[in-house]
Amino acid sequence: MAAIRAGQGLLVGLLRCGHCGRKLHVRYWGARGTHARYLCKGDYDDGGQYCQRFGGASVDRRLSQELLKVISPGIEASLRALEELSTGDAAQRIALSSKLEQLEYEAKKAFEQYDAVDARNRLVAGELERRWNEKLEEIAKTKQRLAGLNGKRYSLSVDEEAQILAMGTNFSEVWQNDHCPSTLKKMIFRTVVEEIIVRTDAEKKTLQFTIHWSGGTHTQLAMDRPRSATETATPIEALEIIRRMAVRHGDDQIASVLNRLGYSTGKSKRWNQIRVATARRNYSVSGQRRALPDPERVSLNEAARICGVSHRTIERLVEAGLLKREQVTPRAPWEIRRADLNNETVRSIIDRLLRTGKLVLQGGSSGNPPSLFTENEGDDNARHHE
Predict the structure, then answer these.
(1) Alpha helices in 288-337 (DSSP H)
(2) pTM here?
């Protein structure tokens, strides 16, 4: 086993490129230099391109899940194998003990025959002595084998077996604990995994892994390729809208506008208040969760409430050019100046509407639909104003 190096990357030294056959390297980045990124240089050093590269955190997590699936049930299987070994050794121990007993009896008989022979009969005495020595040598070898078996007993007590089974049950919890050192995780990976072949598909959207386990079996799995920070960056157009709206509008309003305009985050997700706040923080854009009250400007809702009319009345005043409205970006909330609501012309039209029920604009056009007086509740963006 190669030396375990420092760093958070768990698969260092195990990954091999499925395209060119080279070993993948690891680089660390981030503020603390602890985020791993795996890469295959390919022919980069010769002026070419990297063969493949991807972030390490999600890959480490995915392959750790596969490791946990193998190890947890493997502990119970090992106990069963240990039990089988213990059964086999017990039978062998009984056979060797019987053999030793027989050899000791034969050695005793050989000694008695040697001791009873006439010492002057050197030829017979020498043969009997040789037979006796052979039995003594066999006894010594049998005792040695028996001692070896006794020295590597595989049997476990009930408590020991329960502890090992508990270890398998809690292994996943221990692995995922923040206090579990990465060096220990790497050592476990190196023990059970020979090599991992990785390749990307033609569109570079999927990573395909082939895990070569130490036992000789192989496992294949696939996952989405982790995208780099450049690939997951907030689109420039969306960021520009965030910058312009964050001056007065809240994150919730910005998210609503971005979704209505069809923009998504760098990870292709819908915008929400939290994601807008994250984007502002990442790009150092000042802002707020909710819109700040502006003493000079009001929204469409507020303008209708102040004047005691409906949204549609305010809209018709804007369409007629009698009331000005501001809009930071298409689909953003309308902003109307309070001073414009107090304009003499606008005030007289609204007063007449409230007295007669008729909206008379410049040129004499009028109307008195119910919506002119009905207060409409809802989002300022609901009508998708351009």
Answers:
(1) 300-307, 311-319
(2) 0.47
